Amino acid sequence: MAWIGEIDLGTRPTPANDKALVSLIIDGQAIEVPEGTSIMRAAALMGTTIPKLCATDSLDAFGSCRLCLVEIEGRNGYPASCTTPVVPGMVVRTQTEKLKTLRRGVMELYISDHPLDCLTCPANGDCELQDQAGAVGLREVRYGYDGRNHLAVEKDESNPYFDFDPTKCIVCSRCVRACDEIQGTLALTIEDRGFASAVSPSQGQDFLSSECVSCGACVQACPTSALMEKKVVEIGTPDRAVVTTCAYCGVGCTFRAEMRGEELVRMVPWKDGKANHGHSCVKGRFAWGYAQHQDRILNPMIRSSVDEPWQEVSWEEAIAYTASEFKRIQAKYGARSIGGITSSRCTNEETFLVQKLVRQGFGNNNVDTCARVCHSPTGYGLKTTFGTSAGTQDFDSVEQADVIMIIGANPTDGHPVFASRMKQRLRQGAHLIVVDPRRIDIVRTPHVEADFHLQLRPGTNVAVLTAMAHVVVTEKLYDEGYVRARCDWDEFQDWAEFVGQAVHSPEATEALTKVPADLVRDAARLYATGGNAAIYYGLGVTEHSQGSSTVMAIANLAMATGNVGREGVGVNPLRGQNNVQGACDMGSFPHEFSGYRHVSDEATRKMFEQAWGVPLSAEPGLRIPNMLDAATDGEFKGIFIQGEDILQSDPNTTHVAAGLAAMECVVVQDLFLNETANYAHVFLPGSTFLEKDGTFTNAERRIQRVRKVMEPKNGYADWEIVQLVANAMGLGWTYGHPSEIMNEIAALTPTFKRVNYKALDEHGSLQWPVTDAAPAGTPTMHIDAFVRGRGHFVVTDYVPTDEKTGPRFPLLLTTGRILSQYNVGAQTRRTDNVLWHEEDRLEIHPVDAEDRGIRDGDWISLRSRAGETTLRALITSRVAPGVVYTTFHHPDTQANVITTEYSDWATNCPEYKVTAVQVMPSNGPSEWQQSYREQAAHSRRIAGHVAAAE
Ligand code: SF4
Ligand code: SF4
Ligand code: SF4
Ligand code: FES
Fold this sequence. Notes:
Distance between the termini: 36 Å
Shape: globular
Helix content: 25-40%
Number of helices: 29
Bound molecules: iron/sulfur cluster, FE2/S2 (inorganic) cluster
Mean pLDDT: 92
Structural class: alpha/beta
């Protein structure tokens, strides 16, 4: 699959529900197009390209450049084809002598104020202005170039990823409109009028200091080199493109990786991408430089003790050593003494192989995944209530939503491309309810304002949702017909009786949740009666001791109001990492095979035993925290960790470190020498998403291809490395390509039955279940009935967390992420994204800051019962009094040092979102932090030493 550029039909398609066809004649040819189509698009559909500059098919028609004029029989003048819709029987001419003259005249004016440096311009060969000048046959500029012009205006090079060169700007407004219509940030404007008109970020600021979030939509929309990627300026225009999928968040944007030779020039969001429809955020679009970063470890390393420096070895030696250590440990301590951790960043195929290595090769079920610390309650809660451990909708569904409820998620930072879709729908008039302890951006952003922000006290999700359910039940706002037809009516009645108790009313719970009762009442009424109501939630729901209860409380509310099973409604977890859905689907949990089938299920186990030729254990294996416990107890001695930094991402760092230190063989496979590698005996270099084939599954259950655009710098793709380890342990795997792994997944997993690479290439992507009954996938689930049969209402009693505030720890800490950074920052900190977030800061309310004598930017110590760290303060009323907030992207901060050991009752998902803390002024980084920093620097020095010895 290699092509460059995409066809631009000039104007947007008409809405899918606009089905009536209109017949017309263009240049003597008859054509039928949907009503509402522009003449420009109709012509383009039949292969006739009308010259254009201000139009592009990702934006609303604007009609400003006047290059796209046409003649229409029976009409006076020369209407713009981009803004003129087709009419039945219309006869259009796109190329006449008069039109040629008019277009040349327009183009002449543009070019008279444009630098004539095409040969040295970075857009040379990829410039619409150049193309259109050719298309209209411009041969001379009669006005000369000596009059007033804009050719001396200075470039804005402030953004690390793209430049703005106003001398190349033709003031077509495509950038302004892209920022408004696609991204929804409204960071750009056309200042002034007439000759003085100019594009300006914000109020005459440069791009970097404006509210621009560097999504790149304006750069993509610009028809000239006025907005241009710095990489294109540096390298030149690309000559081929490969479509692949972003490796950052669970939105799963697809991109054209545009290459010149083996060099990646730019990532351009793919218009046909079904998750992103041609949009992107700063991470996927620009922050891929980590793949080439000098910190990447490219050669395997081993050491017999973690106190020794690493020794570089050949791949053969590293793999043989790994296999022999695992065998030695099992011979000495038993089959259950080793295990593995799969990665939500790796492909489905790689994840499948790691769990297969554990089950088939290690002979146990000791496999777990990082979803343990994020969305495991989603798996439990949605499977229990609906029957499937996944979201119910596709992203497009939001276009049919009348009420959007966001709970414990921050889409503009965590899932930015989907947030832009949401904002488009909200600007069209949908209502918004936000349930979050913090005033996240979407509560109030240009042209969007939440109807209700329920700013609850961290840890009280279940109480707020039960209070909303109380209103639904006591005010009889539930959908009885739906519940009787689709759910278990007896269970509903039990649940209704429970939530209807006075003790669960908004008034009774107000003191606890800190949300005014009338707000809860009004929000519940809106959700239940406002039309199609869709819930989107994130880690602010799951990472609690009541994470699973909250997921089920959400499901209860959706079922009671009939909001599951059609477009525009549903319950949708916004997944953090690119393949967290896939990692869960692939059997990464210790109790489940792929497709969420319990290991004790005889028939499923037999099927895998037959395929893999070994007996498999029916006993669930150890979860990550249990592996670490068993390690400190001396029973668990070896682990294979692919693409995870559990020392940074898991709770209670001290406990994780103790568990790892107690093991005899820790094998870490990653791109960089991460913090966990400080405790490793074997380091196997990983490959990036650019260097391998495979698939990722996004938050919509959408399986999408990841395609290799360059050879692995470390020598092997990750799936090959797992295969090498497996074969060194005697498993005899013979996969020649990830497509063969997918074939095995499909053969063993009913929901993936019709998934294969050919089908993925044909459809672009597939949303599971992909079965004989649904070979093209399933965008909306539970349409006629819930997957489990009848929807299951679960009584979700509010049980307060054991983590309590008190005189010593009077504040509640909650955590989250920021747009420019990703997870523990291993990738984004190695890109220019650090410009937007150099360090984690603690947000604190002005009242709490004043009480403690803390000023903005002061160093503060953040102390909990578990530990202490130091960071700087950011005083803001985004957080309520009594609540503080920080991000966790920088290892120096080590936010997880202070989080507790409390976890979700059903899944052990850590309670990251509620920690009782005290905040006090500090003189700077604590002693502990200083030593941590030195340790990290030491690891880096060793890595540097190894690199120098190459
Ligand atoms: S990069 Fe995105 S946010 Fe920034 S100005 Fe362009 S469209 Fe707007
Ligand atoms: S910067 Fe580009 S897109 Fe924006 S007005 Fe100028 S030419 Fe048009
Ligand atoms: S929204 Fe997510 S998937 Fe899309 S470009 Fe950004 S990080 Fe990548
Ligand atoms: S393309 Fe139609 S007016 Fe510019």
